[in-house]
Amino acid sequence: MGPNLDQNQSPQADSDIHSGVGVLDKTVKILDALESGPATLGQLVNETGLARPTAHRLAIALERHRFVIRDQHGRFVLGSRFAELAAAAGEDRLLTASGPILQTLLDRTGESAQIYRRQGDQRVCIAAVERASGLRDSIPVGALLSMEAGSAAQILLAWEDSERLHQGLRHAKFTAAKLAAVRKRGWAESVNEREDGVCSISAPIRNPSGQVIAAISISGPTGRMGTTPGRRYAPLVMAAGKYLTEALLRASGER
User: Which InterPro entries does the record match to this protein (predicted)?
Assistant: First the structure.
C-alpha cells in the first residue's frame, strides 16, 4: 500500500528535503527554482508553492546578499555571490599550484608577483612572493586593494557582466575602452595608476567553466620596469595565468 497523501500534499512536496529549519528550506526552494533560469515573482510562487508574501520577502533578502539579482525585465536570477563563493572554494587548489609559478615569475622578471581575487567591491591578495632586496612593490597576503585602479583590478572587472562592469567603471581610473583592449589581448597594464612610481602587468586565471576567478600579476617600480612594461613582461605573465588555469582544469577532472 502506498503512502497516504492528504489533500494539500503532493508527491513532489513529499520528496522535498526538510532540514528542520523552515526558513532555510523555503530559501533553498527559491534558489532551486531559479537554477533553471529567470523567474517573475508569480513564477516563483508557482514553482515553490510558497505564499506570495513569503516568496517575495525571501527573494528580496537574497537580493540584498547578492545571491539573487534582477535582470533588465525585473525578473529574479541567480546572482554573483555564487561565483564568488565558488572562487573561494577553489582557492585551495589554486594556492597549491601557485607557489612554484609565482617563484618562476619572480626569477624570470626580477619583480614581485601576486595573485588577487575579487572580494565584493575590493580585491584581496591571496598569494605573493617578493624580491629579496632593492626597490619592490610589497603586497602582503591578505591585503585588500581597490577595484578602481591597477592592472589586476582591470583583469577582475574586464570579463564581468555588463551591469557589474558599468558599476565598476563609475569611479575607476581606467575606461571601458581600456577594458575592451584587455579582453582582446588577454592582459592588462597599469603605470602610475594605483600608486605613483609603480607599474604592473596582470593576466587572468580561469576556472574549469572559463570564468575569470583571479588575476596573476607582477609589480615593481616604473623606473626599473619602464613605462610600457607589457611589451616585455606580458608573455610571461600570460603564460603563468594559462598554466594555473590548466592546473585547475586538471584538478577538477581528478576529483
Answer: GAF-like_dom_sf, HTH_MetabolicPath_Reg, Tscrpt_reg_IclR_C, Tscrpt_reg_IclR_N, WH-like_DNA-bd_sf, WH_DNA-bd_sf
